[in-house]
Amino acid sequence: MKKKYFAILFTALVFTGCSSKSNFYQLHTNDHVSGNRADRIKQNVIGIAEVEVAGYLDQPQIVTRLNEGRVNVHEEERWAGSFPKNIQTVLTQNLSKLLPSYTLLASPWEEPVSDRYRIYVSIDRFDGDQNGTVVLDGRWSLVDKEENRMITGEKIRYIDRGGITLDDMVATQSRLLDRLSRSIAKKVRSRL
């Protein structure tokens, strides 16, 4: 009798575990970013360092803001991969289109290529609230590795309003990454 009970209990637990359905999201480049990227490595290489994000964001679940001091971790709504890596990939793709005379590589890379310049991005806040307001708060810098000095950088705080669904929030986050990419590209063009 006990064996039969445990078999039924085990089967119920297995099927219960299989019934949960997670939704997966990814940040994306915006198609209106102009420029084309040749796959050939150019002489001017800029590396994009691994993006640092605040601890509360560095997890597979999507996080939204309930108020200034409270967040909601959505257990069934997840990033399709690493959130910091997704940000780095989108920035690299956007900047590759915006700076066609440079080769932009996401660190680490396997090619035997050396980058003289490297872009560092650190994000303190990148979430949305129930009203559709998304905030990107952090800083970035462009460093000359050979001279061991910062060339330029800035503290950023971008706010944009989108829709109230998680799909809308992710689209708004992608727009803010586009805005950040354009700001970085403008500074790179004026400084290098």
Task: Report a brief summary of the structure.
The longest helix is centred in the last third of the chain and has 26 residues, at 166-191. Residues 9-19 have low confidence and may be disordered.
If you had to describe this structure to a student in words, what would you say it looks like?
Helices cover 31% and strands 35% of the residues. It is α/β, with parallel strands linked by helices and 192 residues long. It has one domain: ABC-type transport auxiliary lipoprotein component (Rossmann fold, 3-Layer(aba) Sandwich). The strands form 2 sheets. Strands 2, 3, 6, 7, 8 and 9 form a 6-stranded mixed sheet that branches. The protein has a 3-stranded mixed sheet with strand order 1-5-4, covered by helices on one side. The longest helix has 26 residues. The radius of gyration is 21 Å and the shape is elongated.
What would the CATH topology be? Rossmann fold
Number of helices: 3
State the name of the first-level CATH class. Answer: Alpha Beta
| Uncertain stretches | 9-19
- Give a short account of the largest sheet: 6 strands, mixed
Mean pLDDT: 89
Shape: elongated
User: Residue share in helices?
Assistant: 25-40%
Q: Give the terminus-to-terminus CA distance.
A: 77 Å
Radius of gyration: 21 Å
Number of strands: 9
How do the helices and strands follow one another from N- to C-terminus? Answer: HEEEEEHEEEEH
CATH architecture: 3-Layer(aba) Sandwich
Which structural class should the secondary elements be placed in?
A: alpha/beta
In what range is the share of β-strand residues?
25-35%
Report the CATH superfamily. Answer: ABC-type transport auxiliary lipoprotein component
For the record, the count of structural domains works out to 1
